[in-house]
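Aim 2 progress update. The chain analyzed this quarter is reproduced below.
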Amino acid sequence: MTAQDSVRELVRHLRQFRDDEASAEKPFFWLGAGCSVHDGVPLNAELLDAVLGDDVDTWGSPQYRFDLFCDGLGPGVARAGLFRRYLERPLTPDSPYRRLVGLLARGYADMVVTVNIDDLLEQALAAAGLREHHDYRVIDVPQYRPEAAVLQITAPGGPRIRIIKLHGGLDPGLNLMTSREIIRYEERIEQLVRDVTSRPAVVCGYSFFHLNVLQAFSRDRSPLYYANITFPDAPMVLSLMAQRNYSPRFIDGTLGSFAGLMRAVTEQLT
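Predicted structure tokens:
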């Protein structure tokens, strides 16, 4: 199945289950760091470079040094203040997040799970005239006790659109960023992730490099569309795709970028 074939199949799936009511038959979108590049948010390697600078006195790889740096900084206001300068960006006029919000508003999808801590998706929702608590709900998971987070996400009633910020946001600096913080989710959150990801999934701009995600992501055989500019060669991604799909659904190249995928999907749905 080519990238074009996978996009056409995704469009058919979105069209088939479009509804003004919430439905587990609809695909949900899982967003990684690659989705925010278009709007100027740096990828992990660039972020580490910017934060660590030319400190040659600290031994180890950039990620290891970053972990030590964040351990010393601690979660909370200090961390939020530091990372805001790198991750806080205005939504661009042609941001792909705007097209994603259009899909949500028109009932093609109900749920987005993001491991990004920037607020570009929230900006796009507001720019479209959608109102938090009325049209959509944002659940910043690390800010809640596990049982409360699960209730916020799964409780019936309330807004159809649910945005799950799985690793937190910029405020108040309670986010999962270091290697120690992404070892494993708390048991109830891990089960929540497994339940949510058992639905048809569209994974965008994400390489599955978080250990907690790999442990929790469902292996159930519901469709999984994997969109990334580069075709994956990591065994962990290929193994997950093989478990989930009878026929692989890879979307790479121009179509695999978040902007390219959102453009292709919205144009074909029009």
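The two ends are 23 Å apart (CA to CA). The longest strand covers residues 136-140. These observations will guide the mutagenesis experiments scheduled for the next reporting period.
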